[in-house]
């Protein structure tokens, strides 16, 4: 199945990627001993060692996937083996990817037509890929008759919409009985799709849907006169506030392309490159494996957009490694859960959630990305410092040099894989649309994997030097002419220079490209189905005025100008609504209901949306439904409740930080904010989160008593809050605690 030059990304390559590092670290002691011992090891022993390590990792990966499937319905797939139906589904997925790339780059589809075609593909793949009920036998050779009927119903309803939407629009809102019938079929079939793919979200959407009819029986402000079936399905199907609203609009454009981009990055070897790069950066420091987990999970989490999927993939490697290093199972699981969750609000991709925020705010995505940069950095800095202090407290060391790949070799062999991200950022900051940037980055990913091969054709050092000088001249000419930014030209040139000696084992052949197209489409089905069904929730909010009513009622009790009390209400609501719901859907739901509350008490729109995003994402580690923590606990074989509580402690910056930019959004970078003030706020916030980590873990230069910890925690809150007086007080408290800890360490 896998081409020779592109082995599977499942940890079976003992000499490459983080899986290879994992294999080296977990080799038997007899094989990891002295150089003399290693020199006496024959080839059969090495192969057996690699096979055993690969098998161990495969078992752990399978167990992790089973945990994800238990907690997340989007991960429960049918298995068709290698028969014709398996090939047909793969072909459909590839066609879906190609259609979306064409529609996002060259076509001129109107919004409703594109969204309708997007839903048709989602319906077909959902009914083919996902079982009709949880206990269904998932190993099969063909779909069921019920699946065929559902697909036919979806094709009928949304095909009718594509063919007749213009005519119905020209009627001026007059609908025929057949239009209501089609709308009813479309709504019901979308509920069935959501029930299979995102069951918890479908149940929540069902509650909202019933609210449209039950208003007359609800007392108080939330009651309403109620709506007829025809009125509701008309609004949900034919309007732009329902199934074909902003949720599916973003799914059909930004989200799909960036999920596809993530699949291409995976097949390019980028994930292995990131893991090995993380090893070279922090692997030798105290508690190195945990820091590798933080760095790698952050980078991969922002790409795949699913905290649970990231926990299952990277956690199956990093959690056992952290346990072997000396971390307690609960702590190791919590680190992975927190790191994977934070990827959903980490630039530059933000798990594709940022694109929806940009649509809501009506601003370029680059503004959203820059606003999220400092909070995301502070979140991960807290986690890294907590891991470091815990390692010092336990007396843990870093990995030995023989378990860490050479930094120069990693960059030489795979540094060119940065090119797609450079292209992405360059295009977006140069004014191109995120759609164009994503499509161009996908092509750049394929091209980057071929660079080593092409450069390798230049056999002599002289030929390579000449080619590099020629490239510099071309890039320089483009930069001077204004067709290419100077920074992009320089970075691209450096990457290409590094690639002159790189390996071509990750070259993306046509077969691998097809596999990436297939996997990208399959990965987009779960989030796409969620985006479709949240249209029911958004439609209900707009039809009944629920959002405005809720905002008015909260403000009536909170009062105007009560930023923190209003924020507390929103935090609780965001956490509850986000429990058990995919990150994208959680944010959209929370934003629709909670943003009016925050803006009503005087919060700036960007800060309000970022506030909702943080708590919607952090619901993944918030008890009692902390799914990321529970999956990580299953991998680590640790107590779920204790793991989730430790995860909350490690992710505490994410819980408290949003309150600090409610009335002073200096930490949300904007060109409107003074540069020096932003830099000072950023620097003191870094000090604050480091003090927070030290206070929570009870270690600075040595063990901290309760008074030291209290000083550090107070200093942390003062430093995070932008303001000169609070910053000076924080610096004083940190100095006292630091000197005290430094002097006390000699008594340890």
Could you give a quick summary of the protein structure above?
By secondary structure, the chain is mainly alpha-helical. Helix content is 72%, strand content 0%.
Largest sheet: none
> How large is the count of helical segments?
32
Radius of gyration of CA atoms, rounded to a whole number: 27 Å
The average pLDDT score comes to 78
Structural class of the helices, strands and pairings?
mainly alpha
Task: State the helicity in percent bands.
Answer: over 70%
Between the first and last Cα atoms, what is the distance in angstroms? 58 Å
Q: How much of the residues is beta strand, in percent?
A: under 5%
Describe the global form. Answer: globular
Give the total of beta strands: 0
- Poorly predicted runs: 1-41, 496-502
Keywords:
748 residues; mainly alpha; 32 helices; globular
Task: Describe the structure in your own words.
There is one protein chain. With 748 residues, the chain is mainly alpha-helical. Among the domains are: 79-249, no CATH class; 674-748. Helices cover 72% and strands 0% of the residues. The chain is built from 32 helices and no strands. It has helices spanning 17-25, 35-40, 43-71, 84-105, 111-129, 145-170, 177-197, 199-214, 229-237, 246-267, 270-282, 288-304, 307-325, 329-342, 353-361, 365-394, 407-414, 419-429, 434-456, 461-481, 486-498, 510-544, 546-558, 563-578, 583-600, 605-618, 627-636, 640-650, 652-660, 675-697, 706-720, 724-744. Helix 7 packs across helix 22 (510-544), helix 24 packs across helix 26 (605-618) and helix 25 crosses helix 26. The longest helix has 35 residues, at 510-544. The protein is globular and about 85 Å long. The termini are far apart. The model is unreliable at 1-41 and 496-502 (pLDDT under 50).
């Amino acid at each position: 199945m896998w081409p020779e030059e592109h082995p599977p990304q499942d940890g079976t390559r003992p000499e490459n990627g983080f899986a290879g590092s994992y294999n080296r670290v977990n080799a038997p002691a007899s094989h990891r001993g002295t150089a003399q011992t290693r020199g006496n090891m024959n080839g059969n022993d090495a192969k057996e060692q690699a096979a055993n390590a690969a098998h161990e990792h495969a078992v752990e990966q399978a167990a992790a996937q089973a945990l994800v499937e238990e907690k997340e319905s989007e991960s429960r797939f049918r298995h068709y083996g290698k028969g014709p139906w398996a090939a047909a589904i793969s072909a459909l997925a590839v066609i879906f990817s190609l259609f979306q790339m064409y529609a996002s780059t060259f076509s001129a589809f109107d919004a409703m037509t594109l969204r309708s075609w997007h839903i048709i593909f989602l319906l077909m793949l959902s009914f083919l890929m996902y079982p009709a009920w949880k206990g269904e036998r998932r190993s099969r050779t063909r779909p069921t008759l019920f699946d065929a009927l559902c697909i036919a119903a979806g094709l009928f309803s949304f095909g009718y919409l594509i063919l007749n939407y213009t005519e119905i629009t020209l009627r001026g809102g007059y609908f025929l009985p057949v239009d209501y019938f089609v709308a009813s079929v479309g709504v019901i079939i979308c509920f069935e799709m959501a029930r299979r793919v995102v069951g918890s979200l479908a149940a929540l959407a069902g509650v909202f849907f019933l609210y449209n009819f039950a208003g007359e029986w609800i007392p108080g402000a939330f009651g309403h006169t109620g709506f007829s079936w025809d009125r509701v399905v008309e609004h949900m199907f034919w309007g732009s506030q329902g199934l074909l609203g902003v949720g599916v609009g973003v799914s059909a454009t930004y989200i799909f392309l960036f999920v596809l981009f993530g699949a291409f990055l995976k097949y390019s070897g980028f994930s292995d490159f990131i893991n090995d790069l993380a090893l070279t950066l922090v692997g030798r420091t105290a508690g190195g494996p945990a820091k590798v987990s933080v760095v790698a999970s952050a980078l991969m989490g922002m790409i795949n957009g699913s905290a649970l999927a990231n926990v299952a993939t990277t956690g199956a490697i990093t959690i056992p490694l952290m346990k072997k290093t000396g971390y307690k199972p609960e702590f190791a699981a919590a680190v992975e859960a927190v790191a994977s969750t934070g990827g959903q609000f980490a630039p530059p991709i933000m798990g594709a959630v940022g694109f929806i925020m940009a649509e809501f705010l009506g601003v370029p995505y680059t503004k959203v990305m820059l606003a999220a940069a400092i909070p995301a950095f502070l979140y991960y800095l807290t986690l890294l410092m907590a891991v470091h202090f815990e390692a010092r407290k336990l007396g843990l060391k870093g990995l030995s040099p023989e378990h860490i790949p050479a930094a120069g070799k990693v960059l030489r062999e795979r540094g060119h894989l940065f090119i797609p991200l450079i292209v992405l950022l360059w295009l977006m900051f140069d004014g191109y649309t995120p759609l164009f940037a994503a499509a161009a980055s996908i092509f750049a990913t394929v091209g980057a994997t071929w660079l080593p091969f092409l450069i390798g054709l230049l056999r002599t050092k002289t030929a390579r030097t000449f080619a590099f000088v020629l490239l510099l001249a071309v890039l320089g000419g483009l930069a001077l002419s204004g067709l290419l930014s100077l920074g992009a030209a320089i970075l691209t040139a450096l990457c290409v220079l590094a690639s002159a000696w790189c390996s071509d084992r990750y070259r993306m052949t046509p077969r691998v490209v097809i596999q990436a197209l297939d996997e990208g489409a399959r990965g987009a089905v779960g989030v796409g189905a969620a985006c479709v069904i949240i249209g029911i929730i958004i439609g209900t909010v707009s039809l009944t005025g629920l959002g405005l009513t809720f905002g008015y009622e909260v403000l009536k009790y909170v009062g105007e100008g009560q930023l923190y009390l209003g924020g507390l209400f929103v935090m609780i609501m965001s956490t509850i609504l986000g429990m058990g719901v995919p990150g994208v859907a959680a944010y959209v739901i929370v934003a629709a209901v909670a943003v009016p509350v925050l803006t009503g008490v005087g919060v700036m729109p960007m800060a309000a949306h970022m506030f909702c995003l943080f708590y919607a994402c952090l619901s993944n580690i918030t008890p009692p439904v902390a799914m990321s923590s529970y999956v990580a606990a299953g991998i680590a074989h640790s107590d779920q409740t204790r793991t989730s509580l430790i995860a909350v402690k490690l992710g505490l910056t994410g819980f408290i930080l949003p309150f600090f930019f409610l009335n002073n959004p200096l930490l949300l970078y904007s060109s409107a904010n003074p540069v020096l003030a932003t830099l000072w706020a950023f620097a003191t916030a870094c000090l604050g989160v480091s003090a927070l980590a030290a206070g929570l873990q009870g270690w600075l230069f040595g063990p901290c008593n309760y008074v030291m910890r209290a000083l550090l925690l107070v200093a942390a809150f003062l430093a995070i809050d932008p303001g000169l007086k609070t910053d000076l007080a924080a610096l004083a408290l940190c100095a006292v605690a630091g000197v005290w800890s430094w002097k006390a360490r000699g008594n340890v």
